[in-house]
Structures are given as C-alpha cells and as structure tokens.
Amino acid sequence: MALFVAGINPRRPVFLPASSLASDAAARRALLADVAARRGLTEGLLLADEGRLELYAVAEEGCDAYDIAAALFGGTSASLDVTGALYFAEGIDAAAHLFAALCELDEFAGAQSGLRTEGESAASGAQGLSPAEGLSASLARAVAEARSAGCLGEGLSRLAGAASTLAGALAAESSGAAPSALAETAVELASRVFGHLERRCVLAVGSGRLSDALGEAFARAGVDDFVFLGDDEQNERAHLLGARTAAPEGLSVVMGNADIVIVGSAVPGIAIDHRLMKGVARLRRGRPMLIVDGSRDGALVDRKVASIDGVFLYAADDLAAITRDAPWARVGAGASREKLLADATQRFARELFE
Q1: What is the CATH number of the domain that holds 254?
Q2: Do 106 and 201 fall within a single domain?
Q3: Does residue 330 sit within a domain?
Q4: Which pTM value belongs to this model?
Q5: Which of 40, 188, 276, 308: CA 20 to 30 A from 141?
Q6: For residue 288, what are the domain limits?
Q7: How many Å apart are CA 254 and CA 124, to the nearest integer?
Q8: Residue pair 296/316 in contact by the 8 Å Cβ criterion
Q9: Are 329 and 174 in contact (CB under 8 A)?
Q10: Distance (Å, rounded) from C-alpha 112 to C-alpha 118?
Q11: Is residue 329 part of a domain?
C-alpha cells in the first residue's frame, strides 16, 4: 500500500484558519467526503488536534499524493493557500511520524495553537488528559469519522491498530516508573540486602524489557558474574556478554549459587514455587537471596516464597511503589518512550512490507 501523511505546519500563518477543522465536525465530514470521491485515493482519515492537522491516506501507485493533499486542504476554504506550508512523508516514515507524535517525540509535540473551543479546553482539563492521551482520543475520533465516511480500509485500520497498541503501552508506562528507574530501585534493594554487590552472582531466567534493564543496572553496579537461562535468544545474549548459560534441569543448583534472580518471562519446564525455593534456601545455608519477578502481577514466581527466611521477593508493581518517591523515579523515561517508538515502527514495517 502507498501510505502517506500530509500535514500543515503549525508554525505557518496558514495553520490558524485551517485549524477550524479541529472544532468543526461538518467541515471534517466535507473534507472526508472529498477524500472518498478523490481519484487516486483509496483510504483517508483526518487527524485534527490541538497544534496538529494531518491527513493520513492510502494512494494508488503513480499518483501525486502531495498535490492531492494540497488540493484537499486548500479546498476547505476559498482563500486558503497551503503552498509551502505542508510537510509530507510516505510509507514507514508516515507511520513513524504518527507513532512519534503519540510518544511526544516529534517536532510538533509541544505546539500550542488554541484549536479547542473554551468548552473543549475546560473539558480536556477536567479529564486531566496528557498531550499524548489527547492525541490518542483525537485519533479514535478520526478513525470513527473515516469509517462513517466510507474511507477507512485495511491499510489505515492496521495503522490505527498499531497506534492504539502503542498508546496502550505508553499508558502502562506512565502508570509506573520506566524500567530503568525500577532497575535502579532493585539495585538499591540489593545493596541493602547484601551490603555490596562485588562478587555477587545474577541469574537471569527468561527475558523482557525490565529484565534487560535490571541486567544492565546490576552490571553498572559492579556485578560481573551472570548466568542466563532461557531460549536461544537468551543463549545468544549470554554469548555476546561472555556470560554462562544454564539448562532448566539444573535450576535448583544454579539458583543455589545465585544471589540475585531476575525472572523476565516464563520458561518451559521451570516453575519457581515454594517447594523449589525451600530446597534452594537449604543449599544456601542462610545466605540471603533477592528475587525480582518481572511481571506486574507477580505471576512468574510463587508469592509464597517470600515467607522463606532470607528470600526477598519483589514484583514489578512492588518496585514501582518503592520507586514512586525515589530521586531516580524518572530515570530513563525519555529513553523508554524512544524504545517504544522504535519497537512500534519496526513492527509496523514488517506488516507494511509483508
């Protein structure tokens, strides 16, 4: 599909008269009707938000999408000349532009243009929407209007679905601290448990974003003995880092030698339960152990193991609660959004070129 986005630069004077589309439902319907009737376009949706006016569309091969977009925006008013005020991107760059806007990482993320009416501004403030949440709500409205106008097809539905998934990930991210901050909390807890982290052993079971952040944080804190247990990806990571690997059947022995256990994801054949941990505690002969369950709900490790003497168990939610008031609470927030943006773009690129 020939996906593209065309938008009016909010820093250009022509943007203000064009911005009436954000609060004029009838004008948006008229533009979408023009999109549906326009030769060369097979799909289209109009994203009109505070500081942002963009047309996402799918064009037939060989047509001049830029000129079509200029004509569509110019047709909203007899005196509107958008020449030189449009920005334009095609293919995966168009999708990446939308994803960056949701992550508040594009050049127009902080633009303020007063597009909303006084009532709409008051409602937005009452709802306490962040810029990303407001944009996500505008995108949902745009999808509904495009569907109603008959110009929403498979291509833009897939784009909207990918954006919705990203918005959900961003919401989950903002509800707690970034993985980098949670990892700093885990390092602080480990320092309190062990006194120092030199010559400590970390066992990483499975993988995940928090697990990766934890491994990096413990390495920075001086840990140089890592053991990886999981799939081929984990084994490859261990090889690149020069670390050891372990097999599931040797779990109890490996855990007996580990001071810190990071459980990033479920691994077939492994259940870290109360029975296993009682045996591990006997092997450790009273030496303490810190276990981090990388899931938010603590589903990867049996919560009963926390009742065993010397075993300190924390799930992601536990780390988030401790991190909330810590000085490093916002560590890595920007990097986390950048990672979400990169992941969303890569996933959609695979779909786009399937």
Answers
A1: 3.40.50.720
A2: no
A3: no
A4: 0.60
A5: 40
A6: 179-323
A7: 53
A8: yes
A9: no
A10: 14
A11: no
Kindly report, residue by residue over 65-78, the tens digit of the pLDDT. 999 999 998 876 65
If asked whether residues 161 and 236 sit together in one domain, one would say no
**88/198 same-domain check:** no
Residue 232 has pLDDT above 60, yes or no: yes
Q: Do 76 and 33 form a contact (C-beta atoms < 8 A)?
A: no
Q: How confident is the model at residue 128 (pLDDT cuts 50, 70, 90)?
A: low
The identity of residue 166, as a single letter, is L
Closest CA to 211 of 92, 139, 300: 300
CA distance from start to end of the chain: 10
Buried b (16+ CB within 10 A) or exposed e, 34-64: bbbebeebbbbbbbbbbbbbbbbbbbeeeee
Half-sphere exposure of 334 (CA within 13 A, CB side): 2
Q: What's the CA gap between 348 and 354, in Å, rounded?
A: 10
- For 82, 124, 173, 208, the CA distances from 127, given in Å and listed in that order, are 34, 5, 19, 33
Phi/psi at 224 (5° precision): -130, 10
CATH of the domain at 348: 3.30.460.30
pLDDT in tens, 296-315: 778 899 999 999 999 999 99
Mean of the pLDDT values across residues 160-173? 85
Mean pLDDT of 170-176: 66
> Tokens 């030698």 map to which residue?
257
Q: Is the pLDDT of residue 143 over 50?
A: yes
Contacts by residues 120-126 (CB-CB < 8 Å, ≥ 24 positions apart) = 120/23
For residues 330 and 178, is the Cβ–Cβ distance under 8 A? Answer: yes
Q: How far is residue 109's CA from residue 292's CA, in Å, rounded to a whole number?
A: 36
Same domain, 124 and 271: no
Same domain, 18 and 139: yes
- What is the average pLDDT across 39-45? 94
Q: Give pLDDT tens digits for 89-117.
A: 999 999 999 999 999 888 876 544 334 43
Residue 138: what residue type?
S
Number of domains in the chain: 2
